[in-house]
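For reproducibility, we list the full input for the flavin-adenine dinucleotide complex.
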Amino acid sequence: MTSIALKHFIGLRHTTPETNSVTLPKTLSATVETRRARGINAAKTSPKITGRNLRVAVIGSGPAGGSAAETLAKGGIETFLIERKMDNCKPCGGAIPLCMVGEFDLPLDIIDRRVTKMKMISPSNVAVNIGQTLKPHEYIGMVRREILDAYLRDRAATAGATVINGLFLKMDLPSSPTAPYVLHYTDYNTKTGGAGEKKTMEVDAVIGADGANSRVAKSINAGDYEYAIAFQERIRIPDEKMKYYENLAEMYVGDDVSPDFYGWVFPKCDHVAVGTGTVTHKTDIKKFQLATRIRAQDKITGGKIIRVEAHPIPEHPRPRRLLDRAALVGDAAGYVTKCSGEGIYFAAKSGRMCAEAIVEGSENGKRMVEEKDLRKYLEVWDKTYWPTYKVLDILQKVFYRSNPAREAFVEMCADEYVQKMTFDSYLYKKVAPGNPIEDLKLAVNTIGSLVRANALRREMDKLTV
Ligand SMILES: Cc1cc2nc3c(=O)[nH]c(=O)nc-3n(C[C@H](O)[C@H](O)[C@H](O)COP(=O)(O)OP(=O)(O)OC[C@H]3O[C@@H](n4cnc5c(N)ncnc54)[C@H](O)[C@@H]3O)c2cc1C
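The corresponding predicted structure, in tokenized form, follows.
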């Protein structure tokens, strides 16, 4: 059982092939037509809308909201994108997989750095170099969120979404299957000064892309999730030191930097982002941050802290992600992977998938949507990504539980096969075809590493008794 689990999480491979997931349609209407021609869709029962198109509000314009709004607007939906802070600097490491650049057609000039080397550093400061298996064109993108988010929001506006600088406060739920949602928000677009003006808006459906502290989630009584607190400092370091991080990122593991996560140094345009996170010891986060800085000190001394930031990271999906014609996406839904803390790609992807379900269900905005239309997004999402989340959950439980286990984890990272499988899965979010002999060798090596880790822990326990 363990070896089966290991086999999957080492390469982070999905048991569900990507081909079973939503294949992003070139034009959504074309997909609807093809499905109709094949007789796949049952006749729609929801009423046709006359005199206007379906109105959808997207709350929050991070990667989830920006990509949802763009897809909706392109699909013929009257789209409103409400963002409280247009220059929001989301606290974030900003690492994105290569496939996001292609799938979301991101221009290369919004990517600060292309990381091709990683150092995984163990509790005893053994550093393993990762990245030798990358092909010449492969890299991990490093972005600043204020740049990425603004880019996606502008693109949604160009596609036809109405962008509102406003704070969503709450919404009144519809009283019948065709009644509108009434959104209450503070509009900052007005000329009334900083306080803004209280307004209401009627829409047919709502996408909650308003992050970890989602008010849309509260409005639909979506329930809570466990969360990690992540802390990050942006540090401007001297140019000669920055050269070291030019295309290199570091990950530190150990009880000192976090009891259940990792510390990182990620390179940005003119600074490095140094951070860490924890679920279990939130009040000690500053202590862990200091330890991360100490571990990296010879490479960042002389640096100046230019920004300090912290934010919750969801640990698992909310108990409810959909109610009637309102759905949650991205962090609002709880789509961050354990172990790696990755959420940007999953936010953008879930925003797009949810919007596609609405476009398709409403036949490009001509019909009212129903809960079952939006539910298709959840079905596809869960089928496609549930194994990834599960695997990373197991990985975290096995390898982040003690320093000896972390030493074993870093040791395992030196294996070229592990590196290839892990990078392929991270960069492409696709099934990485395995090699049975290498899989077997890996399972044996992994068990060996874990046995050594346990033996080491027992020895250490004896010493501390
Ligand atoms: C310190 C840290 C480091 C991280 N590093 C990485 C990393 O390297 N790679 C990675 O993939 N993921 C990382 N993550 C996770 C990643 O940041 C999130 O998963 C991602 O931002 C989720 O995107 P989102 O669009 O769902 O939500 P968010 O990015 O949180 O966007 C929500 C948006 O909604 C707006 N909003 C909120 N409430 C309202 C309201 N009431 N009215 C109007 N607007 C509202 C906010 O201003 C914001 O713009 C990190 C997280 C943290 C905290």
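Residues 59-65, 82-85, 88, 90-95, 167-168, 209-211, 215, 230, 232, 275, 311, 313, 330-332, 336, 341-345, 347 surround flavin-adenine dinucleotide (CB under 6 Å). The chain has three domains: 2-14+397-464, 26-92+145-224+324-387, 226-314. Both points were considered when choosing residues for closer inspection.
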